[in-house]
Design brief:
Number of strands: 5
Largest sheet: 5 strands, antiparallel
Order of helices and strands: HEHEEEEH
Shape: globular
Strand content: 25-35%
Distance between the termini: 26 Å
Radius of gyration: 14 Å
Structural class: alpha+beta
Helix content: 10-25%
């Protein structure tokens, strides 16, 4: 997926430069937990369990498709909702990405 901002600009900024947040509301908390995504099939995905939010999933994706940017993925259940956050940036650390992702929540 191409970034909506120029890659040259994204590469100049040391932290997060593009964030995608998806919130899926389900019928119950158990259903939200059941539908947490599994990234084990994603090429270049490395699990980062120590960075997980709300006992969910966290990982880094190293992909040529990211054109040199870092990508971190987070997913967790929050009540009846499943929250998924993808963060792209240049020279971004997992703690920077985690700080941004932790601000996402169902409304």
């Amino acid at each position: 997926m191409p970034l909506p901002i120029p890659l040259a600009l994204a590469r100049q900024h040391a932290g997060p430069s593009y964030v995608v947040v998806d919130v899926f509301t389900t019928t119950s908390a158990a259903t939200a937990e059941h539908y947490l995504p599994s990234y084990t099939h994603t090429e270049g995905y490395t699990a980062l369990p120590q960075a997980a939010i709300n006992a969910g999933l966290a990982g880094r994706v190293d992909s040529l498709a990211n054109d040199g940017l870092c990508e971190f993925r987070f997913a967790w259940a929050s009540g009846k909702a499943m929250v998924e956050v993808n963060i792209f940036g240049a020279r971004m650390t997992v703690s920077q990405a985690q700080a941004v992702a932790s601000r996402a929540h169902p409304s």
